[in-house]
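Appendix B. One record, verbatim.
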Amino acid sequence: MTDSTIDRALTGLDSATAARIRQAITAPGFSGQLTEMPSTAAAQLLPLAAAFSVHPISGFAVGAIAVAASGNLYLGANLEFQGMPLHATLHAEQSAILNAWMHNEHEVQALHVSETPCGHCRQFLRELSNSETVGIHVGAHIYTLSELLPYAFGETRSKGNGLLDSTPVALEAVKPNPNTSQQRAINAAQRSYAPYSRSPEGFVLECLNGQFFSGRAAESTAFNPSVPSALVALNQRNLSSSRTVAIATATAAKLATAINNPLPFASTLISSTSNAEIKVVQMDAR
């Protein structure tokens, strides 16, 4: 991301706030999280979120900001992959929510989006246990999910059973190996949200600069809005200071008895961005 891109994205903010944000997003450990920022700044930060968009197919950048109950703000942007089917795209709303989830937030109170959420994203947001109270901000309007999706598919998730606040599962490798990436992938899989397939999965990317990015499965009751672990990991890399650093290794953790197989999609997805081969570890429930 160039200095001029950052300058354009921060236009409208006061100089002190803009300087603080610039310092945060250019720091080596930036991970798409902004702390000690007032929630009222979220709408003004949408151009910054959209600057992280990768859109070689649509040419259309969308930004989103998730406001967590902790007060932290989480960037989100649409992520497209040239040469991949359109359904491989991650939408900005999903990106922001998943970013908060991967930072171990348990509740999002508001979601700011630069464009009106599509039906795909509205259905995905139904997986939040507080989906009925999340304020969805689009321009000057604040919507509830029931206003945007009056005839939703599936049941409302109860407290403690939603995407952000569900209970982890205990998993271990079928053939234990002290390899760091293998254990990271298993750790990610344990926090999967997979209430419909009961098939948790984890994914870890290691970049050439030694930075690791984890992902885990995030399912939707409508299936198609579900996000596989490989795409979640790529989202975390894209929202970081290592977004342009080449991927050195990739590790997938898959339940040995899983009724679905995430590996073919993950293999094709990773090959569209990297030459890294995916190492696979099979898991069992403890």
